[in-house]
Amino acid sequence: MTNESVPQPLSADELRPAVRPESLDFETTEALEPAESWLGQDRAVDAIRLATEIGHDDFNVFVMGTPGSGRRAAVRRLLEEAAAGRERPNDLVYVNNFDTPEKPTAISLPPGVADRLRRAMEELIDDLANAIPALFESEDYKTRRSAIDQEFSEGHEEAMSELFEKARERNVAIMRTPMGFSVAPARDGKVLSPEEYRQLPEDEREEIDNAIEETQQELADILGQVPDQQKEHRRRVEGLNYEMAESGVTRSIARVEAQFEEYEKVLAYLERVKRDLIENAEIFLQEQGEQNQSGFPVATSRHYQKPQFQKYTVNVLVSNDPENHDGAPVIEEDLPTLANLIGRIEYASQMGALVTNFTMIRPGALHRANGGFLVLDTRQVLTEPFAWDALKRSLRSGEITIYSPSERLSLISTVSLDPDPVALDVRVILVGERLHYYLLSAYDPDFAHHFKIAADFSDHMSVEGDAATGYARLMGGLAREAGLAPLDRGAVARMFHESMRMTGDAERLSLNVDTLSDILREAGFHGRKRGAEVIGADDIDTAMSERERRASRIRELGQEAITRDIVLIDTDGARTGQINALSVLDLGNYRFGRPSRVTARARMGAGKVVDIERETELGGPIHSKGMLILQGYLATTYATEAPMSLWASIVFEQSYGGVDGDSASAAELVALLSSLADAPLDQSFAMTGSVNQFGDVQAIGGVNEKIEGFFDICDARGLTGRQGVLIPRANVTHLALRARVAEAVEAGSFRVIPVDSVLQALSILTGEPAGTRGDDGAFPEGSLNARIEAQLQAYASARKAYGAAQAATSGGGRS
Amino acid sequence: MSPPDAPRRARIILGATCYADAESALHVAVMLAHETGGEIHGLMVTDETVLEASAHPHARTVSWTGQGARAVSAERMLEAFRADARAFERRLAETARRAALDFAFREARGQLIGALEAAAGRGDLLLFGARRATPTGQGVVVIAGAVAGPDDVAADADMAALLGLGARLAAGLGQPLVILVPEAMRASVEAACAQAGITPARVIGVADRAALLARLGRMAPAAVVAGPGGATGARPEVVIEAARCPVIIPAEAIGAAGAAG
Lengths: 815, 261
Prior knowledge:
The structure holds two protein chains of two kinds. By secondary structure, chain A is α/β, with parallel strands linked by helices. Chain A folds into four domains: 24-39 and 461-551, Helicase, Ruva Protein, domain 3 (Orthogonal Bundle), CATH 1.10.8.60; 71-89 and 320-456, P-loop containing nucleotide triphosphate hydrolases (Rossmann fold, 3-Layer(aba) Sandwich); 113-285, no CATH class; 556-797, 2-Layer Sandwich (Ribosomal Protein S5, domain 2). Chain A is built from 27 helices and 30 strands. In chain A, strands 23-24-22-21-26-29-30 form a seven-stranded mixed sheet, sandwiched between helices. In chain A, a hairpin with a 2-residue loop joins strand 10 and strand 11 (353-355). In chain A, helix 4 runs antiparallel to helix 7, helix 5 (139-169) runs antiparallel to helix 7 and helix 17 (489-503) runs parallel beside helix 19 (537-551). The longest helix of chain A has 58 residues, at 202-259. Chain A is elongated and about 170 Å long. Chain B is α/β, with parallel strands linked by helices. Chain B has two domains: 11-128, Rossmann fold; 140-245, Rossmann fold, CATH 3.40.50. Chain B has helices at residues 19-36, 48-54, 74-98, 112-119, 153-173, 186-196, 209-218, 236-243; strands spanning 11-16, 39-47, 60-62, 70-71, 103-110, 125-128, 140-143, 177-182, 202-206, 223-226, 247-250. In chain B, strand 8 (177-182), helix 6 and strand 9 (202-206) form a beta-alpha-beta unit. Chain B is globular and about 55 Å long. The two termini of chain B are 15 Å apart. In chain B, 52% of the residues are buried. At the A-B interface, helix 5, strand 4, strand 5 and helix 7 of A face helix 1, helix 2, strand 3, helix 3 and helix 7 of B.
C-alpha cells in the first residue's frame, strides 16, 4: 500500500476543455470553406469509394454507424460523385412475346431509345388504324374482292340457274320447303298432283321419275360443292386480305424499322409485330366501341389505347433521358418491400377473374438502379417479408426476376407471367447500425459473400492536429446547409464544448451531425430572434439551456425530492458506512446525474458480502460483478491468515428500480471499509468510479453529468466550500463541465478531486491516513487499514471462538 | 283502332314458305321498316303445292346443304311447316323487339304469291324471303322494266320511287346498286337516276324477259327490287325463282293494291 499521498482538487481550467475563441483564426465561419459532411470519417469514406470504384461483383457495402452520424448524407454525396463519372445505363422495356405471351420479352436499349420505341409503336398503331381500314375501303380492294366473290358466286349461281332451266325442260319443279328443296313433276310450270301424275302413261312417269332423280342428284351435287367453294372463297379472300394488310403494314413498319435499324432485338421484335399485324389485320376493322356519351371531346387519334392494340404496346420500365448527364442512377428506396425491390406484376379484375399481361409489369428499385447504385435501409429490408431474400437472390444470380409472394406461397392460382429476367449490374449500399452488421455476419452465411465491404462511421474524432479547423468548417457547413447565419468564434468554441460533452470526452469531438445541426438550428433561431447577423456563444448557451430545460422535468423532480429530504442525501456532516454514490439516467436525448445514498453494515459471519440489490433481483450482472470484485479486494487485502469471517450488507438506499453498472463499486467499497474501520465518511462528497481487486479506481462513463448532478444538489442547499466529487483520475480527460460548476470551483466553493485508489478516497472522506504496511507487515497503529484489519481479525477470532464453543456444546451433548 | 281517315302505316310483308327463307330476309325487312316507318308483318305460307308434291310416292327432299335425297311424306312436311312457322314467329318477335319495330305474324295456306297478294294493300312492300346458298351477295338489283315511258308522269314517279328504294337498300346493305332494264328503256332509266341523284354501279340492258331472267339467274344479288312486270313481263314467281335471294315488290306492282287495304 503506497497511497499515502492526498490528491489535490482540480483547477477550474481542468474542468473545461481548453478551446478558447481567441485560438480560432477566423471571425465567423463565413470565412471558412465548408467541410465535407464526412469529416473524421476517412476510413468509412475510403471503404465506400472502394465499393464504388472496384469493378468486381459482390463488393457491395454495408455502411454502419449510429443514427445521426451523417451516414446517409455522406453515402449520397459519395455515390453522386461516383455516379457522375459513369455512363447513363440502358433503358429497359418489356414487349409482348407473340409466341408465348406469358413470358414477356425484356429488351435493353441505349438511354432514350425506350421512349422513342414506345412512341414509334404508338404512332405505328395509329397509322395502321387509319391506313388499314382505308386500304380495305379502297376501290382496288373492293374490285379485287368483288372479283373473287363474283367468281365464286357466279359459278354457283350459274350452275343453279342451269339446273333450274334444265328442270323446267324436264318438266320438273324445284320447290323451297321447310325440309330443303323438293323436286316434283310439273307440266307447264305447274306441279302435278299425285293423281295427275298417276294418270300419266307409264313411260312418261318413268321419264319424269328419272328426271326427278337426276335433278335431285344434280341439285345435291351443286349444293354439296358449296362448302368447299366457300372454303376456297375464304382462302382467296384471306389471301387478298393478307396481301392488302401486308402492303400497308410493311410500308408503315418499315419506317419504324428504319429508326431502330441498329438494334437487332428491336428489329426482331418488329418483324414479329409485322407478322402478327398482317395475320390479325381484322382488328383494325373492328367496330368502334361505345360512343363517347359524356359530351366531352375525346382524342380520336389514340387508337393505340384500345384494348385490341394492347399487345403492340411497349412497356417502358426504365427510361433514361440521354440529355441528362447525371451519370448512373443513385436510387434510395425507403420502402423496400418485395414488390418495390424487384418489381411486380399487377392484375386487373375482369368478369370476376384476375388477369394480367406484360403491360402490367412494374419496375422495382433494382430495375431503376440497374447500372448504378441502390441505397437501402438495413432494418427496412430485414423487416419487409421476402425482401432480404429477394435482394440476395438477385445479387447471387446477377438477374432481376419478378415474382410475387402470393405465387411463392401458392396463395393464388390465377394466370400469371414469367417475364424474362433482366441482367443486374448494381452496387447495393446497405445503411444500418453496427448491431445489424454483426448479427448478419453471425447468422447469415451469404452476407459476407455479397457485402464484402464494411464502412464503419465513427461516432467521434480526436481533437488532435488541425481537427479544430476542420470541425469549425463542419460547423460552418452545417449552418450554411440549414440556411443559418454564420457562427462567430465564440459560438464555435461553445459548439466544441457541447460536442465534447456529447462524446463524454474532452479529447473527442462528436460526429453526430444530426444533433450538432439541431443545436445550431435552435441557436440560429435564438440569434434571429435577437436580430443578430451571426450566431454567438450566447445563442448556443440559450439553445442548450432551453434543451435542458425542456428535458429536465424528471431531473428536477429527483432534485426536488432530495432538497425536500424525501430522498435522503446528506451534503454535509459525517457518518460511518454511508456514502454518496452517483448514477446517470439516460432518457434518450438527455442524460443527467443524481446522487444515491449507499450504506454498508458489517458483523461477524461466514465471509459473505450481501449485495441487497442482487438478493432482491434489482441488481444487474455488471453491478454483481463489481460486488464480487469488492469482495476479492477485501479478502486478499486484510487478515489473510484467517478465514474471511465477515458478514456485510451493501445497498442503494431508496432505490426501487433496477441498478446496474459498476461505477459505484468504489463508493460501495469505501462505505464498507468505513463500516469496518468505524470511521465516519464526510457527506460533503460524492464519489464515482469502479474498483478492481487491487483497490484501484477505474474510469466510468457520464462523469460530467454525475458531477453536475451532485453539484446541483449542493448548490440548491448552499455551497459550503467543503463539497465536491471524487472521480477516477482516468476520467479527468473526459471533463467538460458546465460553466456553473467551473465557476464554483474557481470560487473555491466546490471541488472535483481525482483519485487513484479507494484508500486515497477513504483518506479524503475520513480525513485520516489509510496507512501502509510496515516492514513487519502490520499497518500503523490507529490507521484506517489497521482498524479494518483488526476488525476483520476480531471477526475471525470471534468466529473461531464461536465455532469452538459450538463444537464443545455439540461434543458434550453427545457424551 | 285507328280513326277511319288516318293514313295506314305501310307494312313490310315478309312471306316465306320455310323458316330458312324468312330468316334470310329479316334484316332486309328491318331495314325497309326503318326506311319507310312501317311495321313488319310475317306471313308463313304452308304451300299446298309442296304438301301435294310431298304426297307423291317418290317424293324426296334435298337439304339446303346438299345432303342426299330423303323420302318425305305430306304429314312430315306439314309438321315441318308448323315447326318453321313457330321458329319464324319467335325470330320475328325477337328481331322486331331489338329493332324497336311493331310486328305481326300469321300463317296462311295456299301458295306464296297468292297469299301475299291477298295480304297486301296499297303502299305495302312485299318481301319474298329466299335463303341464298352462298352467303355473299353482290349488289342490290333493281328490275326497272315496268315503266311505260318518259311521258307518263305517274310511271316516272313509280320508277323514281323504285330506284330510290333500291338505292337506299343498297346503301344500307353496303352493296352496289345494279339496274336491270330493257335495253330500249335504258336511256330513260339513266336519266331518271341522274334526276334523282342516284349513281348505280351498273345499268344493264336486257333484250327481253328471257334475257332478264337468264341474267338474273347468273347473278348473286343480296336482294332484288322488282317493279311491275310491264315491258319485261316477268311474273313475280319467276323473278323469285331466278333471283334465289330476298325479292321486294311493291304491292302495286303485282296488282294487289286495295286487296287488303
